[in-house]
């Protein structure tokens, strides 16, 4: 049977983490009352003029730096003209000839995906379609929210790779504090361009585009479906029509848009209301200095400096909030491996299914618990109980340690041991006569642990028992 | 008293010294507007004008300051004044109420001006005769059968006809200067970016500026200082320091290098304005100025460039008039596409539609490089030639128009001949340089002709000095 | 070369969201031809050596990222011909 190559390019939009919109001072905020974050500029009142937000430009530069883009020394803004009700001015301010970032690449496990460009543009408003015939409503709150658009080269060849790319990109953007990428709020959206060709062929097939996919799952399913569909067409000897298709996530199919885009002519030209922005080398260097170590670099550091396993380092560096938690905790507890273990086995297991993971213990408290263990004040068992309590209800650890037995003093421990020894003379004899006294010793430790319900420090207890019995 | 006989500066003094109240002045001019209603210069007299005048009188009484405290001002109908209708003389915006103040209105109000009404204009400032208004044509203040010029025709007639001491216009290709010339008053198109465009309904963003229209040069200098300056709401407004233009007026022109531009002299040949134009140049030489021969090789392409760049920007700027967010929506539109097409087709006049189509032509794929980019490149070339030119001279003289105001209706059927009316004014918009017109000669039927003075960017002071010298020493004949 | 025929007018009026009556078109076409003829003077200029330039500013000249108060919803909607539920309203659109 004929095999096929799948050729995929992505256009990824992410809303930037700014306080205000890109061309006016309205709040950049999700979920506000409709049309409450609007002003003459973003609803396109006559006479209003755009004024560019510096932070938005800096964030796009930052995004570019994380993927080794070249930063253009002059960024130009153009108008993309078309009529649509979510576009208040009948043009979108975007960038065509001189985007802020050119080129770049993102390393996946098995390949490098080249990036064509990243540019800055404004988001459109939101259309609210009612059921029935009541009409469509327009909310311009999102209109003018800064968006970066990253365009890849067609280097991706499977749904898995596409999702790997997006996951990695999201983690970079979140990590560099460029964008929060909250998919469920439309904070990150993806257009997929896809075509298929007989394996090894140099001739690209006709491509289709699916716009505004807003979850990794839809991207995955849409690519699977669409590549299958195209292959089937070719198998039947039919042609793939170059078109924009709509992905229906519920039905799990893509279909041609009802309204054909008759090769839109957007009539781009430089926006005469805006000045081109001169970006100097030293300004780029300054922004570079504000970048934290990126996940890949951090992973290396965790393995080589802290001795974490590849696996653990990989897991922690996947998410910004895990990295932050890890970094904070190791400032207060000297054994990073311990921290990593707890973070992965205790914490991650609790939150891995949450949509918006929330670690319900502070780095300070986890460090405290780990320090108590290290000092031998509590056992792992007790530590886990304390951890569970703190997680449930932010309690005072020192108090818990006291009441839950980490507080067994040396005197109490010694008294308990003496009592156990005096009430078990047979065991003492066995110990003294045994060629392998360790076994009997373990029995005594077991008794101590039983009496203290696991709260005593077993190592300490064993030492003490050995001392007393050897006298 | 016949207050229209006084200059703005005289009225400012009279108000300050309490020889007259703002209420008297304002009611006088409102009565003038009523009396000369047949000129159709003013679309609306604001109902709160008199109460604002009374407020100004209280401030005068309390010795409060304000460079225009109590002065009645008329603004062109494309300048936003919060709470007032701003229609751009278009059906589309007939009932559009401004939700914020333009920067220039803010500045007028800060200095205590009483804005008494809005002036008729060519729809969306597209035109040169004020015949393209949805609210009727405006008549020349000096000859009822002639055009007032445009697009700021209403603003010019308001000053020339004695309806107010000062008005504001906007100038994208000559729209302040040409009507000033036709009505015998003084008007300036300042350096691009000198005055903020915020709150001025955009026609061609990269070319236009607000400009004061006055009876005298000094009045004009006084106004420009008030209106100028950087605005945080307009990226294209300039940080360049605002001059005290009145003190730039020295009363002498010794050593001033006046550029006599070869291409302009050639263009003037055979025109009504030729004789007085050459005379005034020679007279200036006698007065101590130095004449320098200069050249702008691509001068004659400015008109063609303009009719590419301006419609391109206009077509995009006017996209927002879509019948959804404000004002006119066609009543029988059944879906969104029909809202667009019907509202716009019913709401825009012929000239506006023509320019939108032209703009889309030069921007559309396949034509963009050959038209838009080519025009931009010629503009860059012209700017370079201008840098060269202003190394040799301080100002360049030109007529504002070739002849006196033409007859109403005479150019309606021939857009190109109408467009050519701006052949002398458009160059300063293409170059972004300041350019002032003042009446300097009389042509047919004793109607006025304007002299245009251009200088390098931000050299308005130099222009005012020369203009004032001519105004005071040259005999208009 | 005649650039401007009915097909071209159709293309441009669609981009312009405008519609013309037959009568309007009859006067429009010759006028447009004339304008184009005038505009085409630019072809005579040699611009081979000219590079496009843009008015520019520095990164530092841009607006600081501070949010300010917006208009009230009422002000936003006040000039609209049709509103509903605090939004601008248009006839029902198809969802794609």
Give a summary of the structure in a few sentences:
With 471 residues, chain A is of the alpha+beta class.
Describe what you observe in this structure.
- The complex is a heterotrimer of chains A (471), B (477) and C (96).
- Chain A has 471 residues and is an alpha+beta fold.
- Chain A is built from 15 helices and 17 strands.
- In chain A, strands 1, 2, 6, 7, 8, 11, 12, 13, 14 and 15 form a ten-stranded mixed β-sheet that branches. Chain A has a three-stranded antiparallel β-sheet with strand order 5-4-16, with no helix packed on it. In chain A, strands 3-17 form a two-stranded antiparallel sheet.
- The longest helix of chain A has 20 residues, at 216-235.
- With 477 residues, chain B is of the alpha/beta class.
- In chain B, 39% of the residues lie in helices and 13% in strands.
- In chain B, strands 1-3-2-4-6-5-10-11-9-7-8 form an eleven-stranded mixed β-sheet, sandwiched between helices.
- In chain B, helix 2 (22-35) runs antiparallel to helix 3 (49-61).
- With 96 residues, chain C is of the alpha+beta class.
- Chain C has a domain at 6-43.
- Chain C is 35% helix and 9% strand.
- Chain C contains three helices and three strands.
- Chain C has helices at 6-16, 22-39, 73-77; strands at 56-58, 83-84, 87-90.
- Chain C is flat, with a radius of gyration of 23 Å.
- At the A-B interface, loops of A face helix 11 of B.
- Strand 17 of chain A pairs parallel with strand 1 (56-58) of chain C.
Jot down its keywords.
A: 471 residues; Arc Repressor Mutant, subunit A; 17 strands; C: 96 residues; alpha+beta; 35% helix
């Amino acid at each position: 049977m004929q095999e096929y190559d799948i050729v995929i390019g992505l256009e990824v939009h992410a809303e930037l983490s700014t306080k205000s919109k890109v061309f006016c001072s309205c709040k950049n905020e999700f979920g506000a009352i409709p049309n409450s974050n609007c002003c003459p500029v973003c609803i396109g009142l006559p006479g209003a003029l755009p004024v560019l937000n510096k932070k938005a430009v800096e964030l796009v530069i930052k995004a570019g730096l994380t993927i080794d883009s070249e930063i253009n020394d002059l960024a130009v803004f153009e108008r993309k003209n078309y009529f649509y009700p979510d576009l208040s001015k009948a043009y979108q301010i975007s960038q065509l000839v001189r985007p802020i970032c050119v080129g770049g690449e993102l390393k996946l496990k098995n390949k490098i995906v080249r990036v064509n460009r990243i540019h800055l543009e404004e988001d459109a408003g939101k259309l609210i379609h009612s059921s029935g015939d009541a009409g469509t409503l327009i909310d311009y709150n999102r209109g003018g929210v800064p968006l970066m658009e990253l365009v890849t080269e067609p280097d991706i060849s499977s749904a898995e790779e596409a999702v790997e790319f997006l996951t990695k990109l999201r983690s970079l953007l979140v990590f560099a504090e460029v964008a929060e990428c909250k998919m469920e709020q439309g904070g990150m959206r993806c257009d997929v361009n896809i075509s298929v060709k007989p394996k090894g062929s140099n001739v690209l097939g006709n491509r289709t585009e699916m716009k505004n996919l807003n979850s990794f799952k839809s991207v995955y399913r849409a690519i699977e479906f669409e590549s299958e569909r195209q292959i089937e067409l070719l198998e039947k000897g039919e042609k793939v029509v170059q078109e924009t298709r709509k992905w229906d996530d519920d039905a799990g199919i893509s279909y041609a848009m009802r309204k054909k885009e008759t090769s839109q002519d957007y009539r781009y030209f430089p926006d005469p209301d805006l000045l081109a922005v001169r970006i100097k080398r030293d300004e780029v260097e300054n922004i570079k200095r504000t970048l934290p170590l990126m996940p890949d670099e951090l992973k290396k550091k965790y393995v080589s400096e802290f001795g974490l396993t590849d696996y653990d380092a990989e897991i922690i560096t996947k998410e910004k909030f895990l990295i932050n938690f890890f970094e904070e905790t190791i400032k207060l507890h000297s054994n990073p491996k311990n921290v990593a273990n707890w973070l992965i086995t205790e914490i991650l297991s609790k939150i891995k299914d949450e949509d918006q993971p929330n670690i319900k213990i502070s780095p300070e408290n986890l460090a405290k618990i780990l320090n108590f263990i290290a000092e031998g004040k509590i056992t792992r068992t007790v530590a886990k109980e304390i951890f569970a309590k703190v997680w449930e209800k932010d309690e005072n650890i020192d108090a818990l340690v006291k009441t839950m037995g980490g507080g067994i003093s040396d005197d109490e421990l010694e008294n308990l041991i003496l009592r156990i020894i005096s009430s078990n003379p047979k065991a003492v004899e066995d110990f003294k006569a045994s060629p392998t006294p360790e076994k009997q010793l373990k029995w005594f430790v077991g008794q101590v642990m039983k009496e203290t319900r696991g709260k005593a420090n077993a190592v300490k207890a064993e030492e003490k028992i050995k001392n007393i019995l050897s006298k | 008293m016949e207050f229209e006989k006084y200059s703005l500066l005289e009225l400012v003094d009279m108000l300050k010294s309490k020889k007259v109240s703002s209420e008297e002045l304002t009611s006088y001019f409102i009565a003038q507007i009523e009396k000369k209603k047949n000129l159709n210069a003013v679309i609306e007299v604001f109902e709160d004008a008199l109460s604002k005048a009374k407020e100004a009188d209280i401030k005068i009484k309390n010795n409060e300051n304000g460079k225009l405290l109590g002065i009645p001002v008329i603004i062109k109908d494309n300048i936003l004044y919060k709470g007032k209708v701003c229609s751009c003389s278009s059906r589309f915006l007939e009932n559009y109420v401004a939700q914020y103040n333009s920067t220039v209105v803010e500045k007028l109000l800060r200095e205590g001006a009483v804005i008494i009404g809005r002036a008729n204009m060519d729809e969306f400032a597209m035109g040169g005769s004020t015949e393209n208004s949805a609210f009727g044509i405006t008549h020349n203040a000096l000859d009822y059968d002639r055009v007032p010029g445009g697009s700021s025709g209403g603003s010019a007639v308001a000053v020339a006809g004695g309806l107010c001491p000062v008005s504001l216009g906007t100038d994208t290709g000559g729209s302040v200067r040409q009507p000033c010339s036709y009505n015998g008053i003084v008007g300036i198109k300042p350096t691009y970016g000198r005055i903020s465009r915020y709150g001025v309904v955009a026609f061609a963003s990269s070319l236009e500026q607000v400009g004061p229209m006055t009876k005298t040069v000094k009045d004009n200098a006084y106004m420009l200082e008030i209106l100028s300056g950087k605005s945080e709401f307009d990226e294209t407004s300039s940080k360049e320091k605002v001059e005290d233009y009145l003190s730039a007026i020295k009363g002498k022109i010794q050593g001033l290098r006046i550029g006599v531009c070869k291409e302009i002299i050639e263009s003037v040949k055979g025109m009504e304005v030729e004789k007085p134009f050459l005379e005034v140049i020679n007279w200036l030489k006698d007065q101590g100025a130095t004449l320098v021969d200069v050249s702008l090789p691509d001068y004659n392409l400015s008109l063609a460039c303009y009719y590419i760049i301006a419609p391109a920007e206009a077509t995009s700027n006017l996209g927002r008039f879509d019948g959804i967010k404000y004002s006119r929506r066609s009543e029988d539109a059944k879906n969104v596409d029909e809202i667009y097409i019907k509202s716009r087709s019913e709401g825009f006049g012929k000239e506006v539609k023509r320019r939108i189509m032209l703009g889309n032509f030069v921007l559309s794929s396949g034509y963009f490089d050959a038209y838009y980019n080519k025009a931009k490149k010629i503009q860059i070339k012209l700017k370079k030639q201008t840098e060269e030119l202003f190394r040799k001279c301080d100002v360049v003289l030109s007529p504002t128009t070739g002849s006196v105001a033409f007859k109403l209706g005479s150019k309606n059927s021939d857009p190109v001949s109408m467009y050519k009316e701006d052949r002398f004014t458009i160059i300063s918009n293409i170059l972004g340089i300041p350019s002032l017109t003042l009446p300097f000669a009389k042509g047919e039927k004793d109607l006025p002709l304007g002299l245009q003075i251009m200088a390098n960017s931000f050299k308005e002071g130099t222009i005012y000095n020369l203009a004032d010298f001519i105004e005071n020493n040259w005999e208009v004949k | 070369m005649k650039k401007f025929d009915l097909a071209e007018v159709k293309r441009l009026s669609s981009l312009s969201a405008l519609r013309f009556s037959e009568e309007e078109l009859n006067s429009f076409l010759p006028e447009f031809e004339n304008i184009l003829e005038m505009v085409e003077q630019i072809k005579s200029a040699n611009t081979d050596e000219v590079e496009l330039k843009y008015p520019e500013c520095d990164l530092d000249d841009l607006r600081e990222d501070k949010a300010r108060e917006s208009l009230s919803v009422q002000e936003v909607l006040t000039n609209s011909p049709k509103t509903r539920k605090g939004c601008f309203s248009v006839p029902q659109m198809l969802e794609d």
